[in-house]
Every structure is written in structure tokens, then in C-alpha cells.
Amino acid sequence: MAEVLAVKNVDTIKLISHLLEIRHSKQMSDIWNIGINLALRISDLLSIKFNDISEDRLIIQESKTGKIASIQLNPKALEIIHRIRQEHPSHIYLFQSYRNKQAINRIPRPLTRRAVGKAFASIGEEVKLDLGTHSMRKTRGYHLYQSTKDIARVMQMLRHSSERVTLRYIGVTQDDIDKDFKELVL
């Protein structure tokens, strides 16, 4: 699997959302926008059930680590969640598969990681970025780091245990760190 990147330009983040909606579906755009705001791994993002959400907080057990993630939902995430709930009141999953005919008579399931990955990769080709399902999480981490320069805070948000892993994960390179040293003169 190819390494995917954080999206560093805010306008590109918005463009990706728009392209996902017009080229694929509103649901794919919603996945992108919620994913950017929650910084969850794709497996955890797709497994969110409406009963995991209580008022303005999401509480789930991460599948990879087994850790409990308690995430305060921001206004944008809440707006999307409320709209999806209104449009699909019988759904169990936030991103439930419902478009194909096989889904109608089966036990409800979320969209697959593969379907989301294919949609993201096709938009990535269009915008000339290595885009994948981890891009949302990496993008959130990158932008938090850029606004705070607090790697410990980013590590907590991503629930990582190593600064080195977090810096590599969000795409902060030695060149970026060198540039910060050059530009910050006291």
C-alpha cells in the first residue's frame, strides 16, 4: 500500500470535499469532513454507531489499540451528524451502506474501507496528491501541529506514544524543523 499524505492546504481540503460529493456521493464527502474533524483511523470512523454519540461527545473503543476514545464533537461534525440522522433515521451506523440492492435485506453494515479508499484515491489522482483513508487523520494532526507547534498535544489527539512516529505520521520533516529554527529569531 502506498504512503498517503496529510493535505497541507486548507483550500485543497475543501476542494477534496467538493469533488468527493460531485464525483462520488454526499456520503463520501461526509466521511471526509467528519474524518478531518475526528482524526480517527478509518476502521473506527466507519464503525461509529449513532448510539456511540451522546449529545456532543463520541465515545468509542479503538479497534487497533483497544483504548477508549472520548472525543468532543465540534459544531461542523455535529451539523453533519444531525443531518445524516435526519435523512436516515432508521440507520444504525453513521456511514451505513444502503445504496446497493443487497444491503436492503441484510443486517445493517457500514461502508467498507475499500469503497472509501477507492473514492479517495480517485480524487487524489485528480488533485495530484497521494490521498487515502489515512489522509484525514494525518491532515488533522498536521494542522493541529502547525497551529500549536505542540507535538505532545498532537500525540494525545492521535493517541500515539512516540514523538518521532507522530512527526513522521503527520509529514513534518527535518526540513520543516530546520525552517522553523531559521525563521523563528528571538
TrEMBL record:
Keyword entries, A-Z: DNA integration, DNA recombination
MF-aspect GO terms: DNA binding
Tyr recombinase domain span: 1-182
GO BP terms, alphabetized: DNA integration; DNA recombination
Record Gene3D superfamilies: Intergrase catalytic core
Matches recorded under PANTHER family: INTEGRASE_RECOMBINASE YOEC-RELATED (PTHR30349:SF82), PHAGE INTEGRASE-RELATED (PTHR30349)
Protein name: Phage integrase family protein
Protein source organism: Neptunomonas qingdaonensis
